[in-house]
């Protein structure tokens, strides 16, 4: 049950089945808390009030299930030969810790509980906690320690590994899911992961992120490379995206990867390939001392926010005069990349804001890096891909790697519709 649904349930009136009177839930909660305090019972932890309430709720629900299965309530007249046959004790791990419950049984063993299925000692919410902690970079040992410390529950490393392995089928389904027909912008970025293949080596995993027509960030897919990718590799990637439903991309933002522009334009002829401003700034920092990075970023901002290319060149010359003597490699980097950078300056300011959303791109990369860093290296590419997918599924509320990208999306959408007139209509109708 969702949080909103639970809130609505708590706001509903509860009728006492014996007296027929309305029970004041706030008063009931206060009485329970007062009673627990008098008896020295804590709110949480083994034997705590929440633990006892959870036990009562489970046992009440299980007894109701068995009554429905048998066709009569406890103490009623059996309809057939099957009837209640006592209980068995079972401990289940929940989001509040281990809870010991008494599971009712029937004589012929045909009762299959739904709320706490047979042979299941871990509720789904616990699996989601494990996957969430794994996506945040915790190792299996750290997750096991977390459950022991916070919930007082022993969860083995093998159990945690089995939980995370369950996402393999989900990953395959996610990687082949249908995509939108149109993406105003896609970004191609790389995450470097250490993978043991005979020896530990740096392996790039390429992430393609799209901005939907609703202004959402959508992780379209993740592909492992070997560092020597060319046009053939990229053509396979973009052909796969096209086969999954992507009919048109207006702007593809990348960082000069070999063969990528040609592959994009082979797949979508009208797509504009744009030098990634975020990568250009990031690459500039490689040549700068850490103490100067903030100042350099501040000096570069007037260049890529200039109203025209002529104004941008003037601002760049000012930047070169200020920093060229100390960091000539940065000046050379921008001069070499200028031809790929310049088309950016022709776009409406709202489109620029979407393309140059440094925080949006870097926040995703930071989460990927945090998830990867905690593990050091991976035994194979499949294990690394699983880790990256766990991070991806945690990015948005739906678990599919889709979340809000920009807040002021409507002005950007209008700018795209004008700049790329006719293409919205062709792909959306």
TrEMBL record:
GO terms for molecular function: DNA binding; transposase activity. Keywords: DNA recombination, DNA-binding, Transposable element, Transposition. Pfam families: Transposase_mut. InterPro entries: Transposase_mutator. The keyword DNA-binding applies. GO terms for biological process: DNA transposition. Required for the transposition of the insertion element. Belongs to the transposase mutator family. This is Mutator family transposase. It comes from Leucobacter weissii.
């Amino acid at each position: 049950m969702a949080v909103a649904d639970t809130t609505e349930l708590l706001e509903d009136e509860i009728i006492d089945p014996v007296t027929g009177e309305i029970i004041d839930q706030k008063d009931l909660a206060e009485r329970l808390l007062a009673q627990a305090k008098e008896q020295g019972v804590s709110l949480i932890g083994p034997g705590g009030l929440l633990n006892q309430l959870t036990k009562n709720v489970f046992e009440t629900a299980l007894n109701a299930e068995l009554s429905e299965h048998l066709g009569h309530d406890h103490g009623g007249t059996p309809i057939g030969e099957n009837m209640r046959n006592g209980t068995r004790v079972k401990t289940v791990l929940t989001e509040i810790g281990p809870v010991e419950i008494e599971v009712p049984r029937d004589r012929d063993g045909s009762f299959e509980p739904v709320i706490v299925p047979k042979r299941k000692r871990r509720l789904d919410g616990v699996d989601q906690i494990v996957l969430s902690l794994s996506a945040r970079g915790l190792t299996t040992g750290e997750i096991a320690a977390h459950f022991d410390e916070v919930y007082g529950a022993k969860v083995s490393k093998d159990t945690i590994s089995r939980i995370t392995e369950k996402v393999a089928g989900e990953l395959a389904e996610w990687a082949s899911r249908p995509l939108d027909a149109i993406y105003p912008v896609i970004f191609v970025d790389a995450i470097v992961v250490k993978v043991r293949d005979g020896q530990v080596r740096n392996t790039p995993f390429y992430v393609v992120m799209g901005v939907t027509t609703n202004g959402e960030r959508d992780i379209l897919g993740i592909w492992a490379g070997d560092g020597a990718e060319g046009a053939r590799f990229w053509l396979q990637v973009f052909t796969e995206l096209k086969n999954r439903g992507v009919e048109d991309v207006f702007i593809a933002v990348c960082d000069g990867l070999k063969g990528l522009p040609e592959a994009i334009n082979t797949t979508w002829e009208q797509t504009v390939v744009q030098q990634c401003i975020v990568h250009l700034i990031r690459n500039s920092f490689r040549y700068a001392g850490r103490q100067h990075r903030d100042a350099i970023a501040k000096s570069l901002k007037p260049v890529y926010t200039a109203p025209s290319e002529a104004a941008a060149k003037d601002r760049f010359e000012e930047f070169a005069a200020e920093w060229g003597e100390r960091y000539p490699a940065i000046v050379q980097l921008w001069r070499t990349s200028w031809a790929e950078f310049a088309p950016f300056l022709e776009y409406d300011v709202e489109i620029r804001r979407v393309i140059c959303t440094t925080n949006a791109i870097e926040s995703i990369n930071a989460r990927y890096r945090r998830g990867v860093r905690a593990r050091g290296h991976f035994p194979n590419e499949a294990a690394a891909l699983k880790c990256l997918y766990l991070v991806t599924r945690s990015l948005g509320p739906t678990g599919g790697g889709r979340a809000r990208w920009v807040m002021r999306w409507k002005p950007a959408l209008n700018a795209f519709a004008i700049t790329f007139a006719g293409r919205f209509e062709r792909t959306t109708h």
